[in-house]
Amino acid sequence: MKNAYILAALLLISTSLSAQTADENAGPKSKPIRPVRTLSTVSVVDTLPSGNDNLNIVLFSDNTWRYVRTNAFVGDPTIFGDHWNTTVSHAYSGVDENSLPESIDIQLVDSLNSYHYPYKGKPGSRYGIRRGRKHQGIDLPLKTGEPIYAVFDGKVRFSQSSGGYGNLVVIRHNNGLETYYAHLSKREVEAGDWVVAGQEIGQGGSTGRSTGPHLHFEVRYRGQSFDPERIIDFETGELRGSELLLKRRHFSIYAKFEQEFDEETEAARQAEAERKATAVQYHTVKSGDTLGAIARKYGTTVNKLCSLNGIKSTSILQIGQKIRVK
Fold this sequence. Notes:
Blueprint: H1 2-26, E1 44-49, E2 55-60, E3 65-69, H2 77-80, E4 103-107, E5 128-130, E6 133-135, E7 138-141, E8 147-149, E9 154-161, E10 167-173, E11 177-184, E12 186-187, E13 194-195, E14 200-203, E15 214-221, E16 224-226, E17 232-233, E18 238-239, E19 243-247, H3 257-278, E20 282-284, H4 291-297, H5 302-309, E21 322-324
Antiparallel strand pairs: 1-2, 2-3, 4-19, 5-6, 7-15, 8-14, 9-10, 9-13, 10-11, 11-15, 12-14, 15-16, 17-18, 20-21
């Protein structure tokens, strides 16, 4: 049985690497990313070396596998060393938003880094201004005691009670983002712990400044918050894509994903309409066609048709001839 799991894992790894190569050749991904299995729902069958001292291949009872960091892994010092503070919730307090690039390309997931929703459900309160104050995350109503999961692989930077946040866990991820999980009734990880996507890191609750049980979830880049719905569809639990092009303007409390998405959709619709309006268009001459009839069909004039095609109003049209109408 163990050999069967190993064979299945090797086949899956081969398939994964082939798929990764194909995806890279195809360019940036835009399809939603399904979450990995919650670790508590499966049991570990075996652990195999990967050829990399920092990674093991873990086989699960549902015939799936994933890479898991070993204890030897210390992480990228530019991510897990810079502004690393386990005693304050906001470690980047001295970083000015204007010092950041106009845009940052962030690889959210790849063959070594997975994703899982923190909690799946319909958002209650969204990112933006709420009762005259900045609400720098999203609220997901839940029942006290429901499990909360790490969104990406990473290292716990902060885990303690923190004012209005109540019981708070902050995880810094391999992609440079930090995620905040607030109002927990129970914290199950400590600062310095390495976690993987889908690992339970606490239980939902109503600690701190809270009017009822919910998860307050934030995503930050170097201390600057942005709308979590920019990367996660909380109702489906899916990651919107494997990459994120984060722009400096997204750090504004008024830069809501839902509004921008609607605006971008409308802008794309208008651009397509303009493209069609200005696109070159031809009419194929059929039996009985005249310049006057063609002009009326396309809402133009005979003079314009003659100008576009270098012909005269008295020119004889040939069946099959292409007449430019725009």
